[in-house]
Amino acid sequence: MTMSNSPCTDDGLTLRFWGVRGSTPVSGPDYAEFGGSTPCMEVRCGQRLFLIDAGSGLYHCGQHHRTGLPKAIDLLFSHLHLDHTGGLPFFKPAVLDPEQVINTWCGNLDGQSAEAALGTLYAPPLFPVTLDILPCTLRHHGFKAGQTLTFGDGAQVDTILLNHPQGSVGYRFDHAGKRLCIISDIEHTDPWPDEELMRFVEGADLMVYDGMFTDCEYPTCRGWGHSTWQKGVELARAAGVKALAIIHLHPGHTDTVLRAMEADMQAEMPTAFIARERSSVAVGAQAARRPVTLARIA
Ligand SMILES: [Zn+2]
Ligand SMILES: [Zn+2]
Which stretches make up the Metallo-beta-lactamase domain (predicted)? Predict the structure, then answer.
């Protein structure tokens, strides 16, 4: 596993974290290393782009790529809670481009698309305008978590329903012999690891996992829909997952806290790391024992 700030390579499976904070954005000197934007990730299967979630990190994705994004984008929602949808209208310049098509994919509402929910969120008095005034074309697709998504160009992505209030969708990307699983938001179950989830992530080169809490913090946050890095390590070990990235970082976990947490985690699983906003990963390229410290790219 390598982490760098170089552009994604032409082939292979790559992942860039545009937002890794859970629940609410944070900012300030205590969050300089891991970042404060809420979930958004960019997955490239070769040059084929997928965006996962539209948290406030989506703004940075738009600002970084400017006009360099494909004219049709597939945006896969894990679910529609505010920390995963709040960046959508700020995905500029894409949403201001009349030639841009954004396909949203929502799988946690029993087949319903995100259209009605986003229409409720983005309307006065909660938001000054509705999304239909944006120059881009938004097409909303609904599916049932558990289905394999097949896109127009033949690309396929597997999905699984996760344990979270109103449900959430985990995604699995297989490309060029590498496997990436994104498993957030999720609360672990008892017993753990869950058999179906274990099969879903089996043999992944990288699993991205919801580590909002530590095992120590978890008892007072039971039922809130989130997990711990320790449960991520347990799942990774049981399923033969080669590397683990923790996201959905707690807003109260400062850089100092997260660095200590990462050291604890790497004592258990040397290829595990806590995701840093704006960093990118070449999935399965090399098993690093610890992440490379990153400089900001923009
Ligand atoms: Zn969330
Ligand atoms: Zn949620």
Answer: 37-212
Say how many domains are in the chain. Answer: 1
CA 143 to ligand 1 centroid distance, Å? 20
Q: What's the gap in Å between 131 CA and the centre of ligand 2?
A: 22
> How many C-alpha atoms does 122 have within 13 Å on its Cβ side?
18
Identify which ligand lies nearest to the alpha carbon of 23: 1
Whether residue 288 lies inside any domain: the answer is: no
CATH number at residue 66: 3.60.15.10
Q: Is residue 199 part of a domain?
A: yes
CB atoms inside a 10 Å sphere around CB 251: 16
- Stretch 30-43: mean pLDDT, rounded? 98
At 97, is the secondary structure helix, strand, or coil? coil
Here the tokens at position 156 are 């396929």
**Residue 268 included in any domain:** yes
Distance between Cα 68 and ligand 1 center (Å): 28
Distance 187 CA to ligand 2 centre (A): 10
How much is the average pLDDT of 98-117? 98
Question: pTM above 0.90?
Answer: yes
Distance of CA 276 to the CA centre of its chain: 12
Over the stretch 237-291, which tens digit does the pLDDT of each residue have? 999 999 999 999 999 999 999 999 999 999 999 999 999 999 999 999 865 434 4
